[in-house]
């Protein structure tokens, strides 16, 4: 099974987006969009069903139309067809749900109170950094800190965020809303509980809707430097102006495609330069005609960058096949999709002392303050259900120890911090501690905590302890005795330790590339793992640590804003290219000798400082390597522009990145790693070029596939980087593609061993199933079956019943062509032709997209064929063969040379008994 999303997404029942004609007509008295909406309503009133309008789209040049919900169809089938018949209707499309999806975002329905909020929040706790406390590591990873030092902070750029709303009361977000504030505008389409209600205030104070506050902070929060405000952490573009468009409620529901589209269109009307969306679904429905596809494309053409999270469908296992997992809408060609890289440092780690004098480090948003010491109560399995938590709470409550005990449970590969969310079905506990045990994977060594307020009703304080300190806790607890063991919390200063996986791709960040066309998704990556940012105000609030491509998207949006502020005349495509080519490729987390696949990281870690300060430009930002023609593969080019004041020499080189297969051998027991050191190479006409100041040059070259190790039948993907260096500047242009010519690959699965042969046609004769390798004599009662496999995708697959003396020379024979026998012609004249040769009809004739497959089909009795009018018949006695033809990728259905063919042995059809085989 290939690792891509194929099942349909969830439909919003009886709800449709109707696109109307959008044409400006000179001399019109009324705006064209108003005229079209009026005409639609007039015609729709005559339809045999009623509807309500959810959204109207009055944006000439981008999108004109409306979304409607049918109240009832009165049993009418396919009401969208009736809507399509209305004059002026361009398309009618169903509406789908698009959720937020981050691994650290709470599963809100299971939380006691996702609506928890504070009208009068308590004061923010006071904390101070230790010598190694560093909250700027994510900014440093992307060169943003250097730009801030230069005064480049995104001034003059407007960023629209489509999310859950924002708690703009936050001191780091300006404490207000409207013109003159950081959050200057926006809109909301619903209330906290999901009721549809449009208004101009996107304020969200509930913890369940904290996602929008978090991504807003990543984009542009201000550092808090004074008094009680102790977190000196900045957003990427703190001088940019933010517009928030609320499309999700406190339970993160409500994100339908028509509502998201309304938010995007309103953002464009508000004049934003960037739309940042941290949402998506692993399932796909896009066909290029969906209105969301059109809107995104037209926004990009209008100069608005739409930046979206790649999705969190990645796996913790390095053995799982992971290709083709890009979410929707990140998969859309005009969208900039962003992968997630782990923060080099975990921002907030505090220390406690135990009864034996050991220092125990723990991760938490805010420190526990309990200098008298907490007892530790250990639950052996925190994910076995609520009963163990309830039993522990009851015991501690009866002993009068509930408020002076921290309940601990082991974190394992199968029991993450989410297990603690079963803690509080009966009563909240004050403190919970996750102890990491038996961690063998580098991702498991890192600290990990759930989002603020996600445990219990939001007041429970959760901390995590990594493996080394967990071992100390368990060992000392065993020596001292559980009744006497204590942890003393009297330190409110934090460290920011380096993470083992810091600077590498996060495990959950979904792999691309785009299914079937191999274009890179994600196009670029940014810090997204363990990102500290703003959160709704309240207990266990103010800030939160979240991980996900949802965090990487606003980070990249901020970087885009910084570049846009310095180069306001560049197009969306030009800024993306600038960001991609100056990014830094990362190594694979499991093997530092391997550069992570471009299908995982895109161009790598964004570096906004290089994008702005480099004195050259290299474009495009990514390359697709595949067939150029039927005989040419891998011919590409880049353009190098020297924007400096002097002549520069540029040196070209190649860096291979890992290779991967969507379906490794031994499936489903994956014993092959999903990233392998199998590299292509580059062939340059010259390894260097000289370019005068202010001029550019196109550099053509070839990317060659790996010379060994590839297996085209496994549909692998490879990639790498074209490196361009000059005077201390280094550019990297990523590429991806199939490591073989799709057109010239083998399409028919051919096997010839002592135990099996493929393709094959078998007839069930008296002594059992017999594979026809020369000639079989059969009659109308004899069963046949076939095994004809395909190793590649195709859009043309047919099996023709043809005269046995057909003159076509196939690519593969199902018999020995040197053997001769006496041909018996049929009395029936072939009624159709295939590739200008006679044919009696087809057994299979498909022009749909077919995936590689091997199975027993077609099957039946005797000798039969189907005519174009669907008539099935037998042409009568005579000698026949099957001609199998599979269309090569990019080929022409009408050209024999664009197909791979196989010709079967002779099937001699007779009346009466059949007994001969040759």
Automatic annotation (TrEMBL):
Which family would the database say this protein is a member of? Belongs to the peptidase S8 family.
What is the organism of origin for this protein? Daldinia eschscholtzii
Domain of life of the organism in this record?
A: Eukaryota
Q: InterPro entries this protein is in?
A: C5a/SBT2-like_Fn3, Peptidase_S8/S53_dom, Peptidase_S8/S53_dom_sf, Peptidase_S8/S53_subtilisin, Peptidase_S8_Asp-AS, Peptidase_S8_His-AS, Peptidase_S8_subtilisin-rel
Query: Sorted alphabetically, which PANTHER family does this protein's record hold?
Result: CELL WALL-ASSOCIATED PROTEASE, SUBTILISIN-RELATED
Asked if Protease is a keyword of the record, the answer is yes
Sorted alphabetically, which keywords does the UniProt record give?
Hydrolase, Protease, Serine protease, Signal
Q: Which Pfam families match?
A: fn3_5, Peptidase_S8
Highest classification ranks of the organism: Eukaryota, Fungi, Dikarya, Ascomycota, Pezizomycotina
C5a peptidase/Subtilisin-like protease SBT2-like Fn3-like domain sequence ranges: 635-735
GO process annotations (BP):
proteolysis
**What is the protein name stated in its UniProt record?**
Uncharacterized protein
Per its record, what are the GO molecular function terms?
serine-type endopeptidase activity
Active-site feature positions: 163 (charge relay system), 211 (charge relay system), 550 (charge relay system)
* One cellular component (GO) term of this entry: membrane
In this protein, which residues make up the domain named Peptidase S8/S53?
A: 154-586
């Amino acid at each position: 099974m290939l690792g891509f999303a194929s099942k349909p997404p969830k439909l919003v029942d009886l709800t449709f987006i109707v696109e109307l004609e959008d044409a400006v007509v000179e001399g019109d008295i009324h705006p064209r969009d108003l005229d079209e909406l009026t005409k639609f309503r007039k015609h729709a009133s005559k339809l045999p069903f009623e509807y309500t309008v959810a959204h109207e789209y009055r944006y000439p040049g981008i999108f004109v139309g409306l979304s409607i919900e049918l109240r009832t169809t009165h049993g009418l089938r396919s009401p969208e067809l009736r809507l399509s018949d209305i004059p002026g209707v361009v398309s009618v499309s169903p509406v789908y749900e698009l959720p937020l999806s981050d691994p650290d975002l709470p599963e809100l329905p299971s939380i006691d109170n996702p609506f928890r909020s504070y009208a009068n929040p308590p004061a923010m706790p006071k904390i101070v950094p230790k010598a190694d406390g560093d909250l700027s590591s994510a900014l440093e990873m992307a060169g943003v800190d250097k730009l801030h030092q230069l005064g480049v902070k995104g001034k003059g750029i407007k960023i629209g965020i489509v999310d859950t709303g924002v708690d703009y009361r936050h001191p780091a977000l300006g404490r207000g809303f409207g013109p003159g504030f950081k959050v200057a505008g926006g809109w909301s389409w619903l209330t906290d509980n999901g009721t549809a209600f449009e208004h101009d205030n996107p304020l969200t104070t509930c913890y369940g809707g904290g996602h929008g506050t978090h991504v807003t902070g990543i984009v542009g929060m201000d550092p808090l430097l004074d008094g009680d405000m102790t977190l000196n952490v900045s957003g990427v573009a703190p001088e940019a102006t933010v517009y928030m468009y609320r499309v999700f409620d406190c339970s993160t529901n409500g994100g339908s495609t028509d509502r998201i589209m309304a938010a995007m269109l309103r953002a464009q009307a508000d004049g934003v330069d960037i739309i940042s969306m941290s949402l998506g679904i692993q399932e796909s429905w896009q066909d290029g005609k969906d209105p969301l596809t059109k809107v995104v494309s037209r926004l990009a053409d209008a100069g608005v960058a739409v930046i979206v999270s790649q999705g969190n469908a990645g796996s913790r296992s390095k053995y799982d096949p992971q290709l083709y997992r890009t979410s929707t809408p990140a998969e859309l060609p005009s969208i900039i999709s962003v992968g997630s890289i782990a923060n080099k440092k975990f921002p907030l780690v505090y220390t406690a002392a135990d009864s034996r004098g050991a220092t125990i480090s723990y991760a938490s948003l805010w420190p526990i303050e309990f200098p008298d010491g907490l007892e530790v109560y250990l639950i052996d399995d925190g994910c076995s259900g609520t009963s163990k938590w309830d039993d522990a709470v009851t015991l501690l409550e009866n002993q009068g120890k509930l408020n002076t005990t921290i309940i601990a449970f082991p974190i394992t590969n199968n029991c993450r911090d989410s297990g603690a969310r079963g803690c509080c079905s009966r009563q909240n506990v004050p403190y919970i501690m996750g102890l990491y045990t038996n961690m063998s994977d580098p991702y498991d060594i890192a600290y990990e905590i759930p989002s603020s307020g996600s445990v219990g009703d939001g007041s429970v304080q959760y901390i995590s302890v990594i493996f080394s300190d967990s071992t100390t806790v368990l060992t000392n607890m065993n020596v001292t005795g559980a009744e006497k063991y204590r942890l003393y919390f009297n330190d409110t200063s934090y460290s920011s330790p380096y993470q083992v996986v810091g600077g590498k791709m996060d495990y959950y960040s979904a792999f691309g590339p785009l299914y079937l066309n191999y274009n890179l998704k994600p196009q670029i990556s940014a810090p997204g793992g363990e990102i500290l940012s703003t959160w709704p105000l309240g207990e266990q609030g103010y800030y939160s640590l979240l991980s996900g491509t949802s965090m990487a998207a606003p980070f990249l949006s901020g970087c885009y804003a910084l570049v846009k502020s310095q180069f306001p005349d560049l197009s969306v495509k030009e800024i993306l290219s600038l960001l991609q080519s100056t990014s830094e490729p990362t190594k694979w987390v499991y093997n530092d000798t391997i550069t992570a696949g471009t299908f995982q990281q895109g161009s790598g870690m964004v570096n906004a400082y290089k994008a702005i300060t480099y004195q050259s430009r290299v474009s495009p930002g990514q390359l697709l390597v595949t067939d150029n023609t039927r005989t040419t593969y891998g011919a590409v080019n880049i353009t190098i522009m020297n924007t400096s004041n002097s002549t520069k020499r540029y040196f070209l080189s190649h860096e291979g990145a890992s290779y991967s297969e969507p379906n490794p051998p031994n499936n489903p027991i994956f014993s092959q790693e999903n990233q392998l050191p199998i590299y292509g190479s580059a062939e340059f006409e010259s390894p260097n070029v000289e370019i005068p100041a202010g001029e550019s040059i196109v550099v053509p070259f070839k990317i060659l596939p790996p010379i060994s190790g590839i297996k085209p039948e496994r549909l692998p993907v490879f990639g790498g980087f074209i490196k361009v260096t000059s005077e201390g500047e280094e550019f990297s242009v990523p590429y991806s593609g199939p490591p073989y010519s799709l057109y010239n690959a083998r399409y028919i699965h051919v096997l010839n061993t002592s135990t099996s042969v493929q393709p094959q046609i078998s007839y069930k004769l008296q002594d059992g199933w017999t594979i026809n390798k020369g000639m079989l004599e059969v009659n109308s009662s004899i069963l046949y079956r076939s095994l004809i496999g395909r190793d590649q995708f195709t859009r043309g697959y047919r099996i023709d019943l043809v005269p046995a003396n057909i003159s076509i020379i196939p690519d593969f024979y199902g018999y020995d062509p040197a053997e001769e026998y006496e041909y018996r012609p049929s009395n029936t004249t072939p009624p159709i032709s295939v590739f200008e040769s006679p044919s009696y009809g087809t057994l299979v004739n498909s022009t749909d997209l077919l995936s590689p497959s091997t199975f027993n089909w077609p099957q039946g009795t005797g000798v039969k064929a189907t005519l174009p009018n669907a008539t099935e018949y037998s042409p009568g006695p005579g000698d026949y063969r099957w001609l199998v033809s599979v269309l090569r990728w990019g080929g022409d259905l009408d050209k024999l040379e664009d197909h791979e063919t196989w010709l079967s042995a002779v099937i001699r059809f007779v009346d009466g008994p059949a007994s001969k085989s040759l």
